[in-house]
Specification:
Blueprint lengths: L1 E8 L5 E8 L6 E5 L2 E5 L9 E5 L7 E6 L22 E7 L6 E5 L9 E4 L5 E10 L2 E5 L6
Parallel strand pairs: 1-9
Antiparallel strand pairs: 1-2, 3-4, 4-6, 5-6, 5-7, 7-10, 8-9, 8-11
């Protein structure tokens, strides 16, 4: 059985976390890696229309940015690489900016494999910090919700 995690945010920003079983600052960039912007930034800094993953809670630490609606099957060797994912692919927070996607799914393994987790971006610019670090090596930006 795979465990899927869904995070949903209502209109007032309250979070609900469900576990479902299923069968199967812009400045301070430290580097640019094959098009993916990576680096330490101000808290929750994320370009308009983008999806940002951070190494620390509350949008802090190093960040990897993908243009909205762009899927990435391999954070370490795909079209846009995330430099810190090859040594420690853990994510502690995520931000989905307006126009980026209605939901974002992420996976602990390359090629969208492993237990899927999903963030439903109910409000533009939604921010979420995880209680436990999430291993992420691939993700999809979805135009719909977190359904399978």
């Amino acid at each position: 059985m795979k465990k899927r995690t869904y995070v949903s945010f209502g209109s007032v920003g309250a979070a609900a976390l469900l576990f479902v079983s299923a069968s199967s600052a812009s400045a301070n960039w430290s580097s640019h890696v094959d098009g993916a912007r990576v680096g330490a930034v101000a808290a929750w800094d994320c370009p308009s229309g983008s999806i940002c993953f951070y190494t620390s809670k509350f949008g802090l630490g190093k960040r990897c940015v993908w243009p909205g609606r762009q899927n990435e099957s391999d954070w370490t060797g795909g079209d846009l690489k995330c430099s810190w994912a090859s040594s420690n692919p853990t994510v502690r927070s995520i931000r989905v900016m307006g126009g980026a996607a209605q939901s974002v799914s992420w996976y602990p393994l390359k090629n969208y494999r492993g237990s899927r987790s999903c963030l439903l971006a109910g409000n533009p610019g939604i921010k979420h910090s995880f209680v436990a670090a999430q291993r992420v090596l691939s993700h999809t930006a979805n135009s719909g919700g977190c359904q399978t």
